[in-house]
């Protein structure tokens, strides 16, 4: 036995990094995929990234992921605004499609609902029906049968 005090062993040098940037990156990335609530997650990710950068600057440390969380959070906010805007603009068309789809008991009737939606959206936005069909699933309006 030794009279020397026991010391704790670590596997490596002590890390001097702020973890808030990684959390901000997590929230910002989640905000990209969880629409329309992504705007809140993205804003939280931006705030967390900014806090981590500020704390790292004050403590002379690094903040891995902090800058990226701000960038991805900004993209998430922009995507959420576009998503929400399209849903506001297409509110009447979506409501009519939801009502029609809830009453459709056959594939043929559902196809008629889908065709009516495509036509209404293409008229509202001034685009072709094929183009309308391509972006409607991104807005939560799945057109066509799987």
- Stretches where pLDDT is under 50 for at least 5 consecutive residues are none
How helix-rich are the residues, as a percent range? 55-70%
Instruction: Indicate how many domains the architecture comprises.
Output: 2
* Number of separate helices: 6
Q: Main β-sheet, in a few words? A: none
- Shape descriptor reads elongated
Question: N-to-C terminal Cα separation, in Å?
Answer: 73 Å
Explain what you see.
- The protein has 146 residues and is an all-alpha fold.
- It has 2 domains: 68 residues, no CATH class; 50 residues.
- Helix 1 runs parallel beside helix 3, helix 4 packs antiparallel against helix 5 and helix 5 crosses helix 6.
- The longest helix is centred in the middle third of the chain and has 24 residues.
- The radius of gyration is 25 Å and the shape is elongated.
- The termini are far apart.
- This is DUF4190 domain-containing protein.
- Keywords: Membrane, Transmembrane, Transmembrane helix.
Summarize the structure.
By secondary structure, the protein is mainly alpha-helical. 68% of the residues lie in helices and 0% in strands. Keywords: Membrane, Transmembrane, Transmembrane helix.
């Amino acid at each position: 036995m030794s009279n020397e005090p026991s010391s704790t062993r670590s596997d490596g040098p002590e890390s001097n990094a702020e973890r808030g940037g990684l959390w901000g990156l997590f929230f910002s990335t989640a905000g990209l995929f969880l629409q329309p609530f992504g705007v809140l997650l993205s804003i939280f990710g931006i705030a967390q990234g900014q806090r981590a950068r500020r704390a790292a600057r004050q403590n002379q440390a690094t903040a891995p992921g902090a800058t990226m969380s701000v960038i991805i959070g900004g993209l998430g906010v922009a995507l959420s605004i576009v998503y929400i805007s399209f849903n506001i603009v297409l509110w009447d068309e979506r409501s009519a499609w939801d009502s029609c789809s809830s009453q459709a008991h056959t594939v043929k009737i559902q196809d008629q609902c889908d065709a009516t939606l495509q036509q209404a959206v293409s008229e509202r936005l001034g685009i072709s029906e094929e183009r309308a069909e391509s972006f409607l699933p991104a807005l939560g309006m799945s057109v066509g049968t799987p």
